[in-house]
Amino acid sequence: MTLTQLLQKNKKQLTFYLIGAFMTTINGLFFTFALSNAFGIIEEPDANGIIRRIIFVLLFAFTPIFSQMLSRFLRIGFMRDILIQVRTLAYEKIMSHTYESYKKNPKEHYMSMLVSDINLFEKDFFLSLLNIIYSFGSFTLGVIILTFISPIIAIATLIVSALLFTVTKLFEPIARKTKKLTQEANADYNIQLTNILNGMEVIKLYHVEENFKRPFESIVVVLENIKKRAFRIDEIQSNLNHWIAGTFQMIVYIYATYLYIQDAVTLTSLILVFNLIGQLVWSMISGFNFINRFKTSIDIFNRITQQQANPQAVHRMTFKEALRVCNLSFAYDTHKIIDNLSFNIKPKDKVLITGPSGAGKTTLLNCLAQNLSSYQGEIVVDEHELRTIQPDSFLKSCGYVRQNHFLFNDSIVNNVILNSPLDKGKFEQIMKDVDLYDWMMTLDAKENHILEQDGLNISGGQRQRLSIARELYHDREVLFVDEPSASLDDQTAQHIYDTLLSLDKTLICVSHRHLDYLSKHFDTHIELKPLGVTS
Amino acid sequence: MRKLKFGNIPWLIINTLHTAVFVSLSGWSIYLLKVVTDYGLNRQMDKVVETAQLMMLILLGSLVLDTIGTLLKSKYLEASLKQLKNHYIHRLMEQDITQLQKEQCNIYRSNLTNDFDRFEEKFLLNVLEIIHMSSRFLMSVVLVATVSIYLVAVAVVLLVIFMIITSKTNTPVQKSEAKKSESLQKYTDFVNETLNGFEIIKQHQLEDKRFRMFVEKATQVQKDNYSVDKNSTKVDGLNSFIQTSIIFTMIVSGILFARSAQASLGSLIMVATSFGNVIWPLQRFTPVITQMKGILKVLDDFDKNLDRPVIDRHIRVDRFENLTFDRCDLGYDDDQFVILQSVDLTIEKLEKVLIVGQSGAGKSTVLKTIRQSIRPKDGSVLLDGHDIFEIVPIDYYSLFTTVDQIGFIFNGTVLENVTMYQPMDEKHVRDALNQVGLSELDIHEPLRNNGANVSGGQRARLMLARALCLNSEVILCDEIFSSLEQSIAKSIEKDILSLNKTIINVSHIIFKDQLSLYDKIYIVDQGTIRQSHDLDEVWSRMILTEA
What we know:
heterodimer, A: alpha/beta, ABC transporter transmembrane region fold, Rossmann fold, 2 domains, 6-stranded mixed β-sheet, 18 helices, B: alpha/beta, 4-stranded antiparallel β-sheet, 62% helix, 11% strand, elongated
């Protein structure tokens, strides 16, 4: 969904928002009217006139406060609704990833999309939208009012605004360049710093602290110097803008004073002009600044919500005859992991995959489990290439116990059954099968014992067995298991293997321990070596 | 560090002086505004033109001063940060060696990067802003005083009332802020859980349920945010009501005062302009001060990180005879969990010891204990019969050299990288390089970019050469093979084992035909460590890499 579509969807709230935003433009003008009317008092000949002026002043001065509040109330509802939807869109984008595309970025990348990027969007988008409306709205209104008082001043204001715009544009390339330089210097500083900090112990050991203070200090010097330049460019630009604005305000004031002497304007208009000019020029400056921020916030929106289309898979998963792996190869970038591997699996087969670390065991499992699709060669289940099988139908028939055993911050039973209805007898039998029943019964809350996120309050072996229990409960036709005994002692490991092998299912299991025992009990043994396979 | 919080004091003083001059100049131009207005009202055109010329001059001057101000400000920031960072580095270098563990490296780095950036933005820049705001305030007071001293008194009283009210009215906003950060925390936790469990959620098609939960959390965040907005709208409304009342009471009464011809209209314009200058900074004053107070915590953290613990260790050692783990339970200090139980392990002088185990089995726990990063939970580790935590740190650390995957290579020549600037015979260095198979390397060749121009294998060999030259008794190898080509790893292992040193090699990669070169092999498995004499057992347990 693009931003425009999102805004269209929220037409009603958007209208309120825009009304609210335009109200702010009038507020500034009202304040100026109040001020000029106050000075008008001095020209009033009698008490009646003074009272009339004071009533005007009060009216103009206090209306903006209430209209400001009203404006804000009109705006914040829209902000709330839009942000809920942006968060949802960003979440949907992340969840639309396949396992493979999800793994391309570290977790922190997604975290920052849902947290800091949205905060940035929240801050920049609404603030700049409001300020742009306010700035250009009050500018237009102000220029119209000025035209009535003195067309010359109105034209001059337009010219000065163009000048300010030019200054901003002139500084843009150099500002952008120094910003980039600063980023680079920061990155460099980070690298150098990490290296030297890594060496601190060695440095200390050989008493060469003094020799290393210099390089340390020199990287600080380089960074601070570039930062200083960037700071200067930013500041000088803003100083120049402020100066132009301030000077212009002075000149107009003097000119207006001249007009007053010539009796061309009243005192009220004089004060009005003075205040209005100030307001107009400042709002121009901030208006320009906010355009860039507005653009950035739209970029953020697009980045965190734009989904790429996933390829459409068409076939339903069936596994009645055979799973055939034909000339399978897989490489991470240029690093080849699996080369030209072929084998067949029949339904209910028990398949053991072994090999040294780095030989591609988990990669192979991930290819077979539809987690990786960028392999070469073919994996065919019954009739269809694995990549053309619909993911949800695949998942309904395949379970996968991974090496990292994720647990939700929820009860034991909910971690096992997840979304499925609870069958208490089945659940307890499975907990016995994975050797967790006795442990569970020792807990105060039994199966309702709450696990911390990532299962930090239980051991690695318990986490592993809970993951296995979860897959057993869901009773899939095919079960992929990665290192089921990694954190278990021999006896428990054997019990788990017995449980797995007794299942009336297809079992594809990766292991690198207990090989003598395992190779006797599995039907097929695929031994991976770094590049090459024997069966 | 806290003592240095204001950064470079001389530059700060120069900046303060500059601000004073600059603000006086702008005060002068506001004063001239009054003059010009009064001349205008008296219809003295020639005087208006005369004053206008002066005003233009002042404006030009203020542009020049402003530019100088920018230069001075940036100088202050540069000088302060250099000073603070260098001080930090200095203190870091003074740290006791037991504190300089690799694990701390990230903390130091984030102190020297993010935290200093935040300090710059939220403290140093705010110091400058506070100086600026205070000067403007003083300037305004002086200007108003030229009109009437009573006016100053009235104004100050009103402003104080204004400030007090503003600081009180914030309470409901703070309350809803607290509620918001709570729901934000829940939201973040949920997101974190979802991202961690991505595979499981996909696997079990829990997307719909999780999606509903997410929307619930996200909605709560925005709802709480909405109530923050609502409350702050009310508070802002109240504040600006008070502010407007003050300004217009002042202006209207001032104008009525002027009408009775006791003050000129020009003075009134001046007073009004000055007030505009004061009200805005006053609103910023409280939040800026709060922000500054908050960020000082960063400096306290620095001090905590750089605090030197009192090390009370007296036993001196100058050689290595043996290292013994006596029924030790090993684990992390801040965790109840024991990773390895009743560890018994003895390493004699010149022995070549291999410690193997699957990743995650606890090999690094042993290494960390030897390096004193963690203390045993039970039992003791002895060096020649002394508890290692009673030996003078520098003596103890001097006995060991660690060779690991990262290694410390800095911008200097090969020679300097090997000798660490210690005076040393070049021949000695060449011998060491030959011994580790780096004879082709020119010792005067500079290494750049933290050793980007050396390969992983050369890096490990350089570390070894350093260990040889620096004459430590024991070389600790920490998983040095894992990122190397097998043939290279194998030849490095062979080289290490031929050295006349005590070698402790911790690895999950081993080579079958070289296992016999070790004197002792320990297997870390199932929560403990045991010695194995059966090379085939070691081999089959690991299923290892064949050459």
